[in-house]
Specification:
This protein has three helices and two strands. With 122 residues, the chain is mainly α. Strands 1-2 form a two-stranded antiparallel sheet. The longest helix is centred in the middle third of the chain and has 32 residues.
Length: 122
């Protein structure tokens, strides 16, 4: 049975209404612990970027350049991952403001891969 909220948290039950559980879209939510780990990893990788930048400017070497590139790539990857999570949380809630095609392509490919694995194993 669905619940329609009116005004000051007064509710009216509407059986089979538009707000019923069967019609409600699935809202995807990434766990806070996973978001916290990703945030900490982004901070650490950003510090590696800055350390690599300082070392390249002071005494350029292959190791300092590798640290700079690795820190940059890892930071960008983690930020993109966090953006992907946020994008699909907002999309599942219906509050998405702008469609981002690269996230849609990634989602489509992941779903196709997951369906292929189910068909292969099932």
């Amino acid at each position: 049975m669905g619940t329609l909220v009116i005004g000051n948290h007064n509710s009216v039950n509407i059986p089979g209404g538009a707000a019923s559980e069967a019609d409600a879209p699935t809202v995807y939510k990434v766990k806070f612990a996973l978001k916290a780990v990703a945030f900490v990893a982004a901070v650490v990788s950003l510090s590696w970027f800055f350390q690599g930048w300082r070392e390249v400017n002071q005494a350029p070497s292959l190791a300092s350049f590798a640290l700079l590139v690795f820190g940059t790539a890892l930071t960008m990857f983690i930020l993109a991952l966090m953006g992907y999570w946020t994008y699909f949380e907002e999309k599942s809630k219906g509050t998405l403001k702008k469609r981002i095609e690269i996230y849609e392509v990634i989602r489509c490919r992941l779903q196709n891969r997951k369906q292929g694995e189910k068909e292969h194993h099932g």
